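Figure caption, in words: inputs first, then the predicted bound structure.
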Amino acid sequence: MKIGILSRNPKLYSTRRLVEAARQRKHEVRVIDVLRCYMDITAHNPVIHYKGEELTGFDAVIPRIGASITFYGTAVVRQFEMMGVFSVNESVAITRSRDKLRSLQLLSRTGLGLPITTFAHSPDDINGLIDEVGGAPLVIKLLEGTQGLGVVLAETKKAAESVIQAFMGLNANILVQEFIKEARGSDIRCLVVGGKVVSAMERKAAPGEFRSNLHRGGQASLIKITPEERSTAVRAASTMGLNVCGVDLLRSNHGPVIMEVNSSPGLRGIEEASKKDIAGMIIEFLEKESQERKSTKTRGRG
Ligand code: ADP
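Bound structure (adenosine-5'-diphosphate present):
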C-alpha cells in the first residue's frame, strides 16, 4: 500500500513509529505536512498539490492533526477522502471530537457515563450553575483548552464564582463539571483501534496536581480495566465515529465516566507502558480496512 502520514513533524515519536511500522510491513510511506498542501477544490478530479507535485496513488492516510490546525488539517483529509483515499479517521469524526461540548452531548445521548457537566457562556445565575453540579469543589474548563491547560479546580464556592466570572470577562465558553474526587488524580487512557481496546494505561498526576496529563508531569503505568470500562471506551469510539482514538476515563463512584476522546492519541506513553507495537496494530487495521474499501460516508452521529 501507499500510505500518507499527515503530520507536521516527521521527528515526533508517533509519526516516526507509524513510518517504521508501515515500512516493516513493506508499505510505501510518506509524511505529509498538511499546512503545505494546496488543493483545487472545484476540479473534476480532486487533487492535492504538495512541494511542487501532485499527490497521487495513495491507498490510505493516517491523520495526525494537532488541535491548533484542525480547520485546515481536516480540509486536507476531506480532500483525500474525495480522491477515494481511505482515512484511518474520517474528517468529520476528527472535527466532531475537537469540540468538547459537541462530543459530550453526543456521548450523553448514547447514555455513556459522564461527569455531571454544565455549559455556559454568560450565566446570570452563577449560583444556580454551581448548584447544578453539586457545589464546590468543582472543575471549570475552557472549551478550547488542550493538554490540561484551561482546566481549573475550584475548591470553594467563592473560588468557583471568581473563576467563572473571570472566564466570563474573557468572553470564553466554559464547562462547569462535577469534580471526581475519588479518581484521586488518576485517569485511564484506553487506546481503541478498529473497535477494540488494544491497550490501557493509568496516568497518575504529579504530587499536588489533579490533572493527570503526561504533559503536566503525569506518570503512566499499565492497568487492567474492567469489562464495563472496556465497553464504555469502545462505545465512545463508535459514537464519535473514530477508528483509532484514545478514550480517557475516570473511575467515579457512579462507574467509569468519560473525560474526552482524542482522535490523534500520542503513542509514546502507551507503547512504553504496554511494550506493545500499537503503531503496527494501526497499520494492520489499515491493511484490513482499506482492502474492504469501506466508503467514507459519515459514520457516528451528528
Ligand atoms: P484536556 O483536554 O486539556 O486534557 P481534560 O478535561 O482531559 O482536559 O482534563 C485534564 C485532566 O484533569 C484529566 O485527565 C483529569 O486527570 C483531570 N480532570 C479533568 N476534569 C476532571 C473532573 N471533573 N474531576 C476530576 N479530575 C478531572
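Residues 115, 139, 141, 145-148, 151, 177-180, 183, 187, 210-213, 248, 250, 259-260 surround adenosine-5'-diphosphate (CB under 6 Å).
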